[in-house]
Amino acid sequence: MDSDLDPRVQVGEDLWALACSVGQEPMAMKLVTPLPSRGGPASSGGRAAFRVEYGDGLRLKARRHRDLETAQRVLALRRFVASRHLPAMVASQGACHLTEWIEGDSPDPDDPKLLATAGALLGRMHQVDMLPEVQGYRFDYRHWGGRIRRNAEQLLEVGALSGAEVEVLLGRLERQAPSHSEPVVIHADLAPDNLVVSSGGELMLVDNENLAVDAPGFDLARTWYRWPMNESRSAAFLSAYREHGDPGPFLGFAEFWTMVVLLEAGHFRVLRDTPDATAPLDRLRALMAGPGA
């Protein structure tokens, strides 16, 4: 933090108060993930995560989620993920969470053991008993249809997709959509840059903001997008996944879910003008030009 500025101004009153809730004020709060946000910078309520350092050597992670609903959802769904793979929750208030800081190493994304552990972890998440309010849910294209159409139309408005491309895309997705899918807890961001191997050798999920309840096919497609694997690595991941979950809902509709994920990623990147913003849409166009066009 800039020593010339009040830390409350730099990180926001809410995160500062939560960081102080452990009985001592932080010595430093260092921004670790400047997440793209429409909420503005960290000091004015935007999404952000900080490493919090205290005088006694304690380190924690303070995160402000995009909104209260997201924070509450993540808090509720954490119980469906094996606790040994999650940083312990220290405190929460409003849209902010305070968790333990995980010291460890970045994993090797090609390590067969890591692939197997991650595959089994996601498989177990996809087989947990659901919350009562979603037990009767079945996938329906209308659940995704509105979201897909909004994303496509907004990309059309900014010139990232043409009218002809949008028409072909929406027609193709509607024809290929699965008729149903059981609801599961999804991570939606399982990738090496969100994983740490702790000093005790445990694989830890250190970024869990996208925990939600949705179709497992979407989650597996997100994993393939975020964690590129060749055939042998994919086989290792799926072999471990199959010990707990059924990849059929993804494999049977792989093109549909892959196109949905590429559209979502393209929408996110283009509207926030991130580096290589059009890369997902280029991959989407290549897929649209392939078999089934």
Radius of gyration computed on alpha carbons: 20 Å
Low-pLDDT segments, ≥5 res:
1-5, 37-41
Largest sheet: 5 strands, antiparallel
Please give the CATH class of the largest domain.
Answer: Alpha Beta
Intertermini distance: 53 Å
Helix content: 40-55%
| Count, helices | 11
Q: How many domain regions?
A: 2
CATH superfamily of the largest domain: Aminoglycoside phosphotransferase (APH), C-terminal lobe
Global outline: globular
CATH topology of the largest domain: Aminoglycoside 3'-phosphotransferase, Chain: A, domain 2
How many strands in all? Answer: 10
Provide structural commentary.
This protein has 293 residues and is of the alpha+beta class. The chain has helices at 7-11, 13-19, 68-77, 112-125, 141-157, 163-176, 216-226, 231-242, 248-251, 254-272, 279-288, and strands at residues 28-33, 48-53, 59-64, 89-93, 96-100, 104-105, 184-186, 195-198, 203-205, 212-214. A hairpin with a 4-residue loop joins strand 8 and strand 9 (203-205). The chain is globular. It folds into 2 domains: 7-101, 2-Layer Sandwich (Phosphorylase Kinase, domain 1), CATH 3.30.200; 105-288, Aminoglycoside phosphotransferase (APH), C-terminal lobe (Aminoglycoside 3'-phosphotransferase, Chain: A, domain 2), CATH 3.90.1200.10.
